[in-house]
Amino acid sequence: MNIKTPSKTDAINSVLALNWALHDAMEADPNVIAFGEEVADPEGGGIIGVTAGLSSKFGERVRSTPISEMGFVGAAVGAAIVGMRPVVEVMLMNFTAVCMDQITNHAAKLRFMSGGQTHVPLVVRMMTGAGFGTGGQHSDFLEAWFCHTPGLKVVAPSNPADAYGLLLSSIFDDDPVIFIEHMPGYWTTGAAPVRGQRIPLGKANVIRSGKDVTLIGYSRSVGDIVSVAGNLAKDGVDAEVIDLRTVHPMDIDTVLSSVAKTGRAVVVHEAVRSFGVGAEISALIHEALWSKLKAPVQRVASKDCPVPFSKVLETAFVYSHDEIELAVRKTLR
Amino acid sequence: MADAAPDSNTLVEIYRKMTLIKFNDDRITAATRAGRLTAPYYSARGQEAIPAAICVVLNERDYITTIYRGVHDMLAKGVPSKLLWAEIAGRATGTCKGKGGTMHITHPATGCMVTTGIVGAGMPIACGMALASQLRGDGRVSVANFGDGASNIGAFHESLNLASVWKLPVVFVCQNNQYAEHTVYAKGTSIGRVSDRAAAYNMPGIHVDGNDPVAVFGAAKQAIERARGGGGPTLIEAKTFRFNGHVLGDAGSYIPGAEYAKAVANDPYPRFRGWLEGQGHAAASQLDSIDAAITKEIDEAVAFAMSSPQPDIAELKRDVYAYELA
User: Fold this and answer.
1) Quick one: which of A99, A224, A244, B215 has the most CB atoms within 10 Å?
2) 3-state secondary structure of B28
3) Cut 0.90: pTM above it
4) Tens digit of pLDDT for each residue in A208-220?
5) Rounded distance between C-alpha atoms, residue A65 and residue A55, angstroms
6) Which of A138, A168, A191 marks a domain boundary?
7) Partner-chain contact B100 A114, CB within 8 Å
8) Which of residues 57-86 of A touch B (CB under 8 A)?
């Protein structure tokens, strides 16, 4: 699902866009290093190929690690506090569970606990998403875990150009960033980024303006809400579409000014519904705009169960476009 | 290890560090018992010889990590007493502006990069600091301090493996005080010596009497020179005992009385002082003047800490991110 229609000549996919970002960052700053399972070229340049070619060009700065997430994410924290800018790939978002101590007790907190004497300019890259039959331990969107930990930033691009600009910003950010790549969306093409151009963290992107309802998403759901907005337009419903880009810290000002205008909001994410990012956004909107709302904020998310394997179950687990439309229509009643 | 024997000046410096650690510990313990400090305190009384002997081999640019029982490591590496005291008193003038406390003392100016409250977590971090040194060729060595209990957590095994595979300039120092919280060593550890685990990761494992500063010095010199010379990591197990239980207030009912009495009789501090004098490395008067200088330093540190301001509430918004929260 593309946000912008690419011309045939400049369309690239997110695998290449991310590769460009890593390459450009490593070329710009010798402190940028990258490691993770099989990220070096002899091991394939990453399971998806995001890091392909980097070890051949940058040598020891790009290393394949043992299957040892606690060890190498901890090593990235250590390298970061002495001035490196490590970008580590933990392959799948679910694998953060085995290095959570280093992420939440160390990367997130060392700046605060040291009174600002140390900080952790670290990017932890990971992919996730249902759709490939990867089941319960390889598909979860777990961003709420990280958003709930002060000190971390959470970035989730929705298209190749954003993936490039946001990764570049994340690498040069002085705080730890959880960088979420949508696995089934890796090969979807979109407009090529302008090399060297960063997209600021913490700023949402209004990708379609409208007056009737605000649709809010990030990562995979952006393509879905753009598509639904197109369908709604045929029925005369004019939807505004916001791509958060950075989930935390969230650009709530952009969200609130949009909802202040439309009076209606629907939040869509692939993560399970309960205690999720949608609940936080809904609460923030209700707290700030209670008197201006024309309808309660709706949440559209995956079902509250582990990601199932069976194609039928997997499809039913994730929200459908019909569910998004239904949620929008609820706000219009 | 005769060639690695420390000279008299080095031995006196080890004594000075041991005294600094012991006297600070005595005062922190007393202040906590008197209610002047209100925080959990994990005393390392009895373990002084280990960091004192290691830190005379390290230089000020080298890095260390330690754990919640780590005030001794921090003092030995060079954290000023007054900043340490202000931190454990929770004051704005502390190393971490009162935001870390005893379990998170940090002082990069002296290479004290992380104190963690999570068992084992300093080891992967030390690997990363060592990786940075390796890539930069800056000649620094990183030392990860931890206890015997940490040798059973995954981070220990992942770190030793990673350090060995990448030949990182890191030294793992297991201060084996024989109790993992309340659990005696043998009940939780599958092998008689932690240092024997080094073999599984293809690195030297050195077992020393952690109450003997000369033995610790020899092991440290060997390991640190190996790391600095590009030879890769070493695991040192320094066997010792902690006299004040897991946390201050722990009555130590799980330690058999005879074992405790024997350990206290083997207190490294008076033993080392007696040895220094007996071997003619230092005169009693020289050591007495070291003691007096440290007592004065601690008096000043306590006064500084207790008269320092409390942190501003606005600190809750600072240091969460690079920018201040709204």
Assistant:
1) A244
2) helix
3) yes
4) 999 999 999 999 9
5) 13
6) A191
7) yes
8) 60-61, 63, 65-66, 68, 70-84, 86
